[in-house]
Design a protein that fits this description.
12 helices; six-stranded parallel beta sheet
């Protein structure tokens, strides 16, 4: 096996910051030591002086090639994982979908077929439970044995992914018995559909009305209900893409009570708001996602929740649809705009900007983007840290490099950026995936199929 040494950088993990050399042998980290201690000359030497040396990002919420609203997410596993690598993310966890009337096995096999041989970085899977029944409940234990240890349900999207409270309770009970983790899209979809229909009937068809009908209180209500159901079932709960401060208050209360309740938020809720979508017209369709963007006053509470650990993870919910040819399916009816935003390439840099702006410390940046998602979803310490025995997923990060985000320069397969024209400080300079340089010198050096499927253990935070 070949050896690689990264010399003189500031190694930042969730636990510490230290100037150190890192030695990689093959796919693994084998040593960290003070500069000058590792005198062995490696096959490849990388100078990280003046740079951060950080674990590759773990994005625990992506949707590559996801079918939605009569179309598919525009990033394939090939293009999406390549874009992730450019942004310093070296692991994604995606969502196979059980079809109504179908089995979990069929959904999982379909996603294995999409991803195998196509990914630039390593990947794992959650499982979307769209049809909770006796058969699918029995299958959950088998999937856990195969390293798919988390299961997503929806309180939103009636007629598509929606599960009623009875189905949710049964799935939670099964998760509690088998060690699985239930992930919840918490919005009251029944009430939202009523409000959406009423809006369209009044002639309010512009995309900006999407944000009004998906009321923050309907996110909070569903979050409260999901927590109560998890208590009844004796099951852990992970709420995805939390956006509203009222929903965050429900999470904080449950965590204060000692419940195994966790939540993630996403960069779009921290850096974007309904200020972006206040004008009439169709441009607002670029920002249509669910849960939706909120008024700017929600952001301060989300940042506070991240600092005090009421919010545990920052993922992207990367689910891109092109503005032309996909988002425009909703011209004349905002309910037909495909829900989702691009973001897998931008997350690590936006969160470093949060460090620059004083919202987060450097170690908390790594904790939220790397270590905690790895622990939450059974990948730590293989992923999410730099330590002997860990996979050599390492980013040499230039904390002073400035960049301007734009569809003209990003690598995601989508024709717009929700951060168009925004300047941030910090950028991945060299990216290693299992010891292989996949981005370096301003070039993509990776290969299709380098990424491997990861079998996950169960959540490491359960009390």
């Amino acid at each position: 096996m070949t050896t690689l040494a990264i010399r003189g950088g500031t190694v930042i993990t969730a636990a510490e910051e230290v100037v150190a050399d890192v030695l990689v042998d093959g796919e693994k980290v084998v040593a960290l030591a003070a500069p000058g201690v590792l005198t062995l000359t490696a096959d490849t030497e990388l100078d990280a002086t003046g740079r951060y040396v950080i674990p590759g990002g773990v994005d625990a919420h992506t949707h590559m090639e996801m079918p939605f609203g009569g179309t598919y997410a525009s990033d394939t596993f090939e293009t999406g994982t390549r874009a992730a690598a450019w942004g310093g993310t070296t692991t994604i966890i995606d969502f196979p979908i059980q079809q109504v009337g179908g089995s979990l096995r069929e959904g999982l096999d379909a996603w294995h077929e999409k991803a195998a041989g196509n990914c630039a970085i390593d990947y794992a899977f959650h499982m979307i439970l769209a049809d909770v029944n006796d058969s699918s409940l029995k299958e959950m234990e088998a999937l856990i044995g195969e390293g798919v240890t988390s299961f997503k349900l929806f309180m939103a999207y009636p007629g598509v992914f929606y599960s009623d409270d009875g189905r949710i309770l049964r799935a939670m009970q099964r998760a509690g018995e088998t060690g699985g983790l239930i992930m919840m899209h918490a919005e009251n979809g029944i009430a939202i559909d009523v409000l959406a229909q009423q809006a369209v009937e009044r002639g309010n068809t512009d995309p900006r009305h999407h944000f009004a009908v998906r009321h923050a209180l309907l996110e909070a209500e569903a979050t409260h209900r999901a927590i109560q159901l998890s208590r009844v079932a004796g099951s852990p709960l992970y709420v995805v893409h939390l956006s509203a401060h009222q929903a965050l208050a429900e999470i904080a209360s449950a965590r204060e009570a000692g419940d195994n309740v966790f939540a993630e938020t996403c960069p779009q809720y921290l850096f974007l708001s309904t200020d972006e979508v206040d004008e009439p017209g169709f441009e607002a369709a670029k920002y249509v996602c669910s849960t939706p963007l909120r008024p700017r006053e929600h952001q301060a509470e989300l940042w506070r929740g991240l600092r005090n650990d009421d919010l545990s993870v920052i993922s992207t919910d990367h689910c891109p649809f092109c503005f032309k040819g996909q988002k425009d399916l909703g011209i004349g009816d905002f309910t037909k705009v495909p829900n989702g935003l691009p973001g897998v390439e931008s997350r690590m840099d936006l969160l470093h900007q949060a460090v620059v702006d004083g919202h987060l410390t450097r170690r908390r940046w790594i904790e939220l983007a790397c270590a905690t998602p790895a622990r939450m979803f059974g990948l730590y310490p293989r992923k999410g840290t730099i330590a002997p025995g860990s996979d050599a997923d390492i980013v040499i990060y230039d904390p002073t490099a400035e960049q301007t985000h734009s569809a003209d320069t990003h690598h995601m397969a989508v024709d717009y950026s929700v951060y168009e024209g925004r300047t941030t400080t910090g950028r991945a300079e060299t990216v290693l995936s299992r010891g292989t340089v996949v981005v370096g010198g301003g070039e993509y050096l990776g290969t299709k199929g380098h990424g491997s499927f990861l079998r996950r253990d169960t959540c490491q935070y359960l009390r």
